[in-house]
Design brief:
Distance between the termini: 47 Å
Order of helices and strands: HHEEEEEHEEEEEEEEEEEEEEHE
Helix content: under 10%
Structural class: mainly beta
Radius of gyration: 23 Å
Strand order of the largest sheet: 4-3-6-7
Largest sheet: 4 strands, antiparallel
Shape: globular
Length: 385
């Protein structure tokens, strides 16, 4: 394939493409990609090993003051030369940002800071149903041998006020039809245009990742009882989805929606910007992030289910003209939006063998099975909870 390489077509291969003995794709499946790019795994490992530790001692709503414990877990350096940036987010948007120097807290020692948060009006936010989050980042004040000034070495976030229940939107025109037997959504028309590529709101248990040690991929009625209730409002549709599992081997409890391929522009309010899961999300922070369905496809050497985002509050899918659909959630919801089904990802042996995208496959899950660490041997699958 030298001619293809000269044309810019790169086809990465692993041991699976050659006779053995070999270790498959083990050498190209780590915290850096085979092309030496950072991966979501790197962000998670960094968060697990961060040497500045946080402890929220308390938040006084009246004075809007947070008392924050900070510990220095480094072995040989003080916290001098590091800055603490603390932001207040209202519904995912930064409304205030301040930075203070941490000072000479020696290795193994700790201190308590009183942070004034005048924009953290929790009483008002609670009445309006707004969410207030305090985000903390520790950054290098000046450039050092391995990183530029402003390089982040630690982060954490605390929810000061949880979001309220959903409030119906009053703009736009939405019409829908569903199959009375299956409850599958047949059409969802926004301003007269159907955004669905196929019947949607289906239960889908299919997930395949290399860490999964079991092989069942079915999504039938023998795995779960699913009910969907639709309530039409002015400019919106409520969908209450109930999943009652019949087995402890579910990969996911939720539904899948198939959007037309032109609605691939995504903006979401959730944990990001990298993929994250319920057992590996310390490397991500809450906020608004823009992406596309193609960009949410994490380029693993062996294609597999990927792109998950936890703690979804809101997401929009639009075409290049800005027309599309907005989805708001209540409770604990994760989502992914990819150009391929989980079966297409499972069946492809290489990224460059994936077919041309025909639709945007959007999963909304109340819970997914954790990613786990089964790559390290037998009997280390994800826990049954």
């Amino acid at each position: 394939e030298p001619l293809e390489l000269k044309r810019g077509v790169k086809k990465l291969r692993t041991g699976y493409d050659f006779p053995g003995p070999h270790q498959g794709n083990f050498c190209s499946n780590g915290i850096l990609t085979a092309t030496r790019e950072p991966s979501p795994k790197l962000a998670e490992v960094k968060a697990a090993f961060q040497y500045v530790k946080f402890d929220m001692k308390g938040f006084d709503e009246a004075s809007r003051t947070a008392h924050l414990g900070i510990s220095n877990a480094y072995a040989f350096r003080s916290l001098e030369g590091l800055d603490l940036q603390y932001d207040i987010l209202r519904n995912g948007h930064v409304v205030s940002s301040k930075t203070v120097a941490l000072g000479p807290v020696v290795a193994g020692d700790s201190t308590v800071l009183a942070l004034s948060l005048p924009k953290a009006n929790v009483g008002k936010a609670r009445k309006r149903g707004d969410e207030i989050v305090l985000q903390l980042r520790v950054r290098q004040h000046e450039a050092c041998a391995y990183a530029p000034a402003g390089h982040e070495v630690a982060h954490v976030e605390y929810q000061l006020c949880s979001r309220g229940p959903l409030r119906g939107k009053r703009k736009g025109t939405v019409a829908y039809k569903y199959d009375s037997q299956s409850c599958h959504l047949v059409t969802l028309a926004v301003e007269g245009e159907n955004v669905l590529a196929a019947p949607s709101m289906k239960f889908d248990n299919h997930r395949w990742i290399e860490n999964d040690r079991f092989t069942a991929t079915a999504s039938g009625d023998d795995l779960a009882d699913v009910r969907v209730e639709y309530v039409e409002g002015r400019g919106y549709v409520d969908a209450l989805v109930t999943v009652e599992p019949k087995t402890d081997q579910l990969r996911r409890a939720g539904i899948v929606v198939y959007l037309k391929p032109e609605f691939d522009q995504g903006e979401y309010y959730a944990l990001g910007p990298w993929e994250n899961y319920n057992d590996r999300r310390d490397g991500c922070l809450t906020g608004w992030y823009k992406t596309t369905a193609g960009q949410m496809l994490t380029p693993y050497m062996k294609p597999q289910s990927c792109g998950g985002r936890e703690q979804l509050r809101e997401v929009t899918f639009t075409d290049k003209n800005g027309c599309g659909v907005r989805v708001e959630t209540e409770g604990d919801v994760s989502f992914s939006a990819l150009p391929y089904t989980d079966a297409e990802l499972m069946d492809a042996q290489h990224q460059w063998e994936l077919p041309a995208p025909k639709q945007i496959v959007v999963h909304f899950d109340a819970v997914t099975r954790g990613v786990g660490n089964a790559s390290c041997g037998a009997d280390v699958d994800t826990p049954p909870q």
